[in-house]
Specification:
single chain; 571 residues; alpha+beta; Immunoglobulin-like; Neutral Protease, domain 2; seven-stranded mixed sheet; five-stranded mixed sheet; 16 helices; 28% helix
């Protein structure tokens, strides 16, 4: 047994006091802190928040040697029990880091729990010390002594811990117990007061996930939802028997905000099948120390992102118009990202997640595409292609679940190709081409199958191929589109826009009325404190968005196919 004790009794210090107790099996001991947490593919170097490391054996203090920035080596005088103490700064409020203050505590245990070499598959016992009036919400079996028991280190690290004076709400899905815990820093349970059917709606979405997977009950024996309702924010992280969500109150005030919350619930809940149990082979087992290439992330996240918009509709909580609107928003975002056309293929996006997706910069739209977004668009195409063969994407997902996921076997790319081509033989060639290529599938033709069409919406002003914003009172260039007029004229990020044809520019809205399409104009800028004038020629107004509409010329057969598609029913 490895005992992990976490002391949160001084939340105002934002420090978690950690104690690790165990009896060593060898006299040479190695310790490591994970570098990342599963589900979020970025090396986070959690060790940067660790301080005051102290190791004792009995009354003797032992001095470890650093083997690398996140690892230590220790030679022991005996095999007597060890105590390791250290503090971890908890000041980062995301679903994959730790945060502790006077209102609540959230712990991602990958950032807190040292891995003891040789003890990965040993049971780990978790104990907590909390401020008065707080309670803990932990998706692990609770023991009679008030501790929680993880079967091994992997289950421990897969355990998000929420603490605070919150209330817990219980409901069931197909007889499986579920818990809902919401931290609202301003008004506890205000979300339930504003949306009194929330728990019933969440349960309906969960049941829709089960139906999508062809299952009578969830994959997890019990489930915990933790929601951080913040002023602003959006995100989630899946676990085997739980998920952590962040959502913004400002978004909830919008007409589509509540639907977006249910879509986030659907996304993370569906992950208990697709990702957690139906897992890429590269993550079997997980290497907590370094990045691994996961070519199938487009399937893990893209398919889940595609279905998260359909699941509230399947649960009876959104309309056909809602789905078309939300899908149109994603299609518009996708079609306006130039990086899809040559910067990065979908396979490359999956393989380069560690160094690109979570490290966006000003030029990211020109050289990359999100495997979430393009994966969802490809999932739409695959679903509609499969329907031409009398099948659907849900059936492929169920096939993979029955053959691999149910037994915890990781999948490789050839498993995905076999599953798709078994339902639609033509995908044996098309799918690899879509994964490796930069040319879009014939989206208009596929959408026409279900009576939908895309309509471009052009900007009202000529196109300079740049974006600007006020930075410290200066009108600064924050994006230069690759190959656009601004780049051809020589503008770069950080340039301050002063004037166009001698007329002063003070805010972004000043630029559009002065632009003359296809005419050379003089733009005055300040670059690193020196004024200069460049010649720039604006292009025709660019497409600024796309609308997805029901095609008025579509016949009843297309309408029938659309209803089958939205109902996740094979054609």
């Amino acid at each position: 047994m490895v005992d992990l004790f976490l002391d949160l009794s001084e939340p105002h210090r934002h420090l978690v006091h950690v104690s690790l107790r165990f009896t060593p099996a060898t006299k040479v001991l190695r310790l490591r802190l994970p570098a990342w947490t599963p589900g979020s593919y970025l090396i986070r170097d959690y060790v940067r928040h660790l301080e005051a490391l102290e190791i004792r054996q009995g009354t003797e203090r032992l001095l470890p040697s650093r083997s690398d920035p996140a690892g230590w080596r220790l030679e022991l005088p005996s095999l007597q029990p060890l105590e390791i103490h250290y503090d971890v700064l908890a000041s980062d409020l995301t679903v994959r880091t730790c945060h502790l203050d006077g209102d609540h505590g959230f712990l991602a245990l990958a950032a807190l729990a040292l891995q003891v070499e040789g003890e990965r598959w040993t049971p780990h016992r978790l104990s907590l010390r909390l401020p008065a009036g707080w309670q803990a919400f932990v998706p692990l079996p609770l023991q009679a002594d008030g501790t929680w028991l993880a079967a091994d280190f992997d289950q421990l690290v897969d355990t998000p811990v929420e603490t605070g004076p919150h209330r817990e709400h219980r409901f069931s899905v197909a007889g499986v117990p579920h818990r809902w815990v919401c931290w609202e820093a301003t008004a506890p349970d205000n979300l339930l007061k504003a949306h009194p059917t929330l728990l019933q709606d969440v349960a309906a979405v969960c049941e829709a996930c089960c139906r999508l997977m062809g299952e009578s009950a969830p994959a997890a024996p019990e489930y915990l939802f933790v929601l951080h309702l913040l002023d602003q924010g959006y995100g989630g992280l899946e676990h085997d028997t739980s998920s952590v969500l962040q959502f913004g109150r400002q978004t909830l005030l919008k007409p589509e905000g509540y639907r977006q919350l249910l879509q986030l619930v659907a996304h993370e809940y569906l992950h208990q099948w697709n990702v957690r149990r139906l897992r890429p082979a590269a993550l079997c087992p997980i290497d907590y120390d370094r990045p691994v290439i996961v070519p199938g992330l487009w399937f893990a996240e893209g398919v889940t992102s595609y279905f998260d918009q359909l699941l509230p509709h399947l649960a009876g909580l959104s309309s056909e118009d809602d789905v078309v609107h939300d899908l149109g928003t994603d299609l518009s975002r996708y079609l306006l990202i130039p990086g899809r056309l040559g910067g990065q293929s979908l396979r490359q996006s999956s393989e380069e997640a560690w160094v690109k997706l979570y490290r966006r910069e000003a030029n990211s739209d020109d050289n990359q595409i999100s495997y979430y977004l393009k994966g969802a668009i490809l999932s739409l195409v695959l679903d509609l292609e499969l329907r031409r063969s009398g099948s659907c994407l849900a059936q492929v997902l169920r096939d993979l679940w029955a053959r691999l996921g149910r037994w915890g076997r990781g999948y490789r790319e050839h498993d995905l190709l076999e599953a798709f081509s078994a339902r639609s033989p033509g995908l044996a060639d098309r799918l690899p081409a879509w994964l490796d290529g930069f040319e879009d599938p014939d989206l208009p033709a596929y959408l026409q199958d279900v009576g939908l069409m895309l309509e471009p919406q052009r900007a009202s002003a000529a196109n300079l191929g740049l974006k600007s914003s006020l930075q410290g009172g200066a009108l600064e260039v924050v994006r230069v589109v690759r190959g656009g007029p601004a780049q051809e004229a020589g503008l770069v990020l950080g340039d301050e826009l002063i004037a166009l044809d001698g007329l002063r520019l003070r805010k972004p809205e000043d630029l559009a009325p002065l632009l003359q399409e296809q005419q050379c104009q003089a733009i005055t800028i300040s670059r690193r404190g020196r004024l200069r004038t460049l010649a720039i020629t604006a292009a025709a107004p660019a497409i600024e968005s796309w609308r997805l509409l029901v095609d008025p010329a579509a016949g009843p057969e297309a309408e029938q196919r659309r209803r089958q598609w939205l109902g996740v029913v094979p054609c």
